[in-house]
Amino acid sequence: MNATFGTAAAQLVPLAVKDLDENKVTPGLLGFVIFALIGLALWWLMKNMNKQMHKISFVEEPDPAAEAEPVPGKGAGRAG
């Protein structure tokens, strides 16, 4: 039985090598799986970052030093 498998494999290997073109190598299934995992990781990171950004409560308070200084051109003394 092993002799039959060995003979069949010996006949099929040259056919596979003959069709192999070194200029047309593709990443195959492993490349697709890795690319899909990177895509899923990116999607999860973006989703998590969006959730974290919505948790931030940012209210800008006016600068007390800016309110104490008079702004030139505004205020009393200017006719309107």
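Second entry:
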Amino acid sequence: MTRSLHLTHDYPYSASAVWHVATDLDHLRAVTEGLLAFRHLPSGAIHEEQILEVEVSLFGRLPFQPYRMVVEALDPVDMSFQSDEQGAGVRVWRHHLQVVPTSEGSRIDERIEIDAGLATPLFMLWARVMYRARHKPRLRILAAMAAEGAV
């Protein structure tokens, strides 16, 4: 039973800066801090066909679980990627992200499809909380980059 979630977040920063933050694994670790802890997560920008075999822990307190993320598609011109993920009780976690320029900066448009069997509604709730929670840390990262002149 696959269900879908669609979220958008607006940023007063250029699409290229937001794309950089959204596709950097070090920033992934930062924007999920307190919600997820990772083991074996590499550094740097994601790339197409990248396979990440990691372990995740909810809140960094529950036991670590194996989790696999595959970057199925990545288009830096379109500023979009799609990952296919599974593990930790999830059969399917398909994440599509696109950064779109706007008149006031840019927008992240995300679609997440989840199948976790009978636990799908619980994982959908978790996804909504987790993806919304990434917005404020991304804003802080972008503001720090702007202060350093990197935006």
